[in-house]
């Protein structure tokens, strides 16, 4: 499944053989994702990353680029430590700032410590309300795994 903007319209591609109900759900999800992504500015994300790097990592993180992506269904963010490229899931758009900041700082820390060693966690856990952010994201994953609990 994919969605993109073509000539100002949302183009959605779905696999053949989906039920009408599954198609309707997929179309709505893809429309919401692409709309969220349009509202999200990579420049603001880069500005936030610079602030977090300076404030919490003494400017040690080496970032080549940071951008929103819509293809991460199971991760909140990812980092290529060698290239310094960071990708942040657009599923974070609209969540509390402390949650987004914790994910950004987590990925920034990977440019310094590429694994999940104690040294890495010492850096990543500098995010304000980092434990609260982890709990928030864990709860979101739980609800995603068990959608019947939503309401």
From TrEMBL:
It holds the Pfam family YgjP-like. InterPro entries: UTP_pyrophosphatase-like, YgjP-like_metallopeptidase. CDD domains: M48_yhfN_like. Residues 63-128 form the YgjP-like metallopeptidase domain. This is YgjP-like metallopeptidase domain-containing protein.
């Amino acid at each position: 499944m994919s969605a993109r903007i073509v000539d100002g319209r949302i183009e959605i591609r779905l696999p053949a053989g989906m039920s009408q109900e599954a198609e309707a759900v997929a179309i709505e999800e893809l429309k919401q994702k692409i709309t969220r992504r349009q509202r999200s500015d990579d420049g603001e994300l880069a500005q936030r990353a610079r602030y977090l790097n300076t404030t919490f990592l003494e400017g040690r993180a080496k970032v080549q680029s940071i951008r929103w992506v819509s293809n991460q269904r199971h991760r909140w963010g990812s980092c290529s430590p060698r290239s310094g490229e960071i990708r942040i899931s657009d599923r974070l758009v609209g969540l509390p700032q402390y949650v987004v900041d914790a994910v950004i700082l987590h990925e920034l820390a990977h440019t310094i410590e590429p694994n999940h060693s104690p040294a890495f966690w010492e850096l990543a856990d500098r995010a304000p309300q980092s434990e609260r952010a982890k709990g928030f994201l864990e709860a979101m994953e739980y609800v995603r795994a068990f959608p019947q609990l939503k309401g």
